[in-house]
Each structure stands twice: as structure tokens, then as C-alpha cells.
Amino acid sequence: MNIHEYQAKELLRKYGVAVPRGSVAFTPEEAENAARELGGPIWVVKSQIHAGGRGAGRFTDDPDGDGGVRLCKTLDDVKENARKMLGHTLVTKQTGAVGKEVKRLYIEEGCDIKRELYLGMLIDRATSRVTIMASTEGGMEIEEVAEATPEKILKVAIDPVEGFMPYHGRKLAFGLGLEGKQVSSAVKFMATMYKAFMDLDASIVEINPLVVTGEGDIIALDAKMNFDDNALFRHKDVAGMRDEDEEDAKELEAARHELNYISLDGEIGCMVNGAGLAMATMDIIKLYGSEPANFLDVGGGATKERVTVAFKIILSDPNVKGILVNIFGGIMRCDVIAEGVVAAAREVSLSVPLVVRLEGTNVELGKKIMAESGLPIISGDDLADAAEKVVKAVKEAA
């Protein structure tokens, strides 16, 4: 689960992480009042959307104007810029061309920036440890730094038994070129950030940029936090920060029915049981010359009703030009899948090619249900055959 910048800073502040003062605003008047309470002489008005690159982004109705992060020197400027941003669509590298509507702003005090650094904390799947990443290239996409100058990324893996120790922080601080009291400030910053990461079951905490001020203080000028969905039951306050307006409507609907769904940009809708098989299905669709429109794992114990919902979610995507159902029946019986597919296809008036590959428990009964449905369902003998058939059908229908 993702949260907004101002929410991440609110959580980090509670743990003692140094962040600038600021307030959230939902109207231009609230933005002006927030700036007035903060005091001047400079304020930063920040669009709050679940996407990076806001400062370099552009609004669809003002492509030549300023981006989603603006520096203001008067209260009138704060109010006017808030008016130009709220309710308007911001496009960044991470939103895609569709962009995201800005529904809230963060009004923050100005900061005397001397240096911009990068600091991130994540779970490294290769080492099974929380790893701290740091770089002197603050304000840049860390992926770009990793590709162009990987030697500028510093990493420290934390032993889960030992936890974060001061020497971890000093190693990174010295690597970042910090000196004097900056080193002790950085060590304290990282220690509190690590505690927040662990206590809140975070999956990512990213500070970009982490700034050194003119007075030598270390401050999080931006903050991004993601959380492990499976641990949210332990953190009702974090779960309450969820902004469903920022999430894909199809993914939300799928979650309500305990379906694992992720929307993608392709044209072949996929419904599979098992995450590994779903990944293999997506790969083979690409192999045969098309792109998957989604990842969808219906799980091992899906009911006819859940399968029907899954089918309808796939078809709610206007980019879907064909559907591939790939089921290996173990706990999930093939006849249940077949009944759900037939029911959903009838309910939504199926208008795109549908290829189904079934194998496993009650496979013959499943095939019989589909064959007798009267629907134009194409049967796949195996995964490769099914993928080839759905890609061919979509191209012929185009």
C-alpha cells in the first residue's frame, strides 16, 4: 500500500526523523491559511499524488506551465498556484500519459538547501535483509543513477539480529562526503528511519532528496513509503491513510473479492490460478508477439462467483482485445472455472476472442461445460498452443 508524501512525513516525524514543517490543503483557501500559519518568507506548494517526478511533470491543461511542485514567495502566490493545481491533471514519468488528478496539496516551509542526497531503505530479496541505499545523486531517479553511474550507489545490508548500528550510518555518511556534525545527524536520521521501517512493516522508505541545509542539518525534503499489505491488520492507523482515489479501480474491486490483480498496458487479458503460472502465461504471451493486459491469480480455492467477478474485471479494461484463461486444476477444479467463465461470458455479452486451456482435476467435465455452452470459446491443447491461438485471434480481429 502506498501513501502520500505528507502522510509519510507525518509518520516519520513521530519517530524523530527530521522533516520540514507543513500542512495538507484541499482548497486554495486552506493552502493560503496553511502558509500563513507556517510563516514566511518562502513556501513550497506540492501536488500530492502517488507518483514520482512531480516537479518535472506538467498539467494537461497547461503543458508549458510549471510542474507539480512550486516555490511561492507571497500568500497570494500560494493561493493562486493552489487554484491552478487542485482539480487539474498532472502528468509525470510515472503516471503515464493519462496522468492523475490533484485532489490535495502539501504546503511546506522553505528550506536552505546546500546539498541534495539520496537515501532509501528496502527489503533486498537476494540477501533477505533490510538494505540501506545512499547516493550523492539526490533529486534524480535512482534507477537512472544505477544505470548510468552504479558506482555512486552505496549499500549496507542490516543483519536482522544485530539491527541498525551506528557504524552502518557512519559508513554511509562518510561515503556521502558528510563531515563534522553532519555525520552524527545522518547516523541519528538513519537510526530513526530504520526503526520506523521495522515498526510499521514498511516495504520501502525513500528520501529523495535528503538535504544538507546551510546550517549542516540533515532533513527529509521528500518522503515515500510503501507498506506490506499482509501486515496492515497490525497498523490500523496506516491502513486508514489509504487513498482509494489514487488506486486502480479494477485492482480495488479485485481485492474486495480476494483476487490478486495488477493492471498492465497490454491487450491480452489473463486469468490464471497460481502466481508462478500467471507469470509464465504472461511471458509466453510476449513470446508469441503480444502483451499481457493484466496479472490475475484467482487462487487455489476460487468459487464460481469469484471467477465470474475476475472475468468481468478483465473485460472492464477497454484495452483488452482477447482473453486467455490458463488453469491447472489441483485444489481449483476445472469444472468450477468453466462454470464461472461461461456465466461471466453470458452476463457481459463476450465480444472478444476467448481461449481457454484447462488441465488437471475434472478437466473433461470442464471442457464439456464449455463445449455445450454455445459460446465461441477456443480450446487450447497446452499453454503454448493457447497463447499462440489467442494472439492469432486478436490479430485477425483487429
* CATH class annotation of the largest domain: Alpha Beta
- Determine the structural class based on helices, strands and strand pairing: alpha+beta
- Sequence stretches where pLDDT stays below 50 over 5 or more residues: none
For the sheet with most strands, the description reads:
6 strands, antiparallel
Can you describe this structure?
This protein is of the alpha+beta class. The protein folds into three domains: 21-109, ATP-grasp fold, A domain (Dna Ligase, domain 1, 2-Layer Sandwich); 113-239, ATP-grasp fold, B domain (D-amino Acid Aminotransferase, Chain A, domain 1); 249-397, Rossmann fold. It is built from 13 helices and 19 strands. The strands form five sheets. Strands 8, 9, 10, 11, 12 and 13 form a six-stranded antiparallel sheet that branches. A four-stranded antiparallel sheet has the order 1-7-2-4, covered by helices on one side. Strands 15-17-18-19 form a four-stranded parallel sheet, sandwiched between helices. A hairpin with a 4-residue loop joins strand 8 and strand 9. The two termini are 37 Å apart.
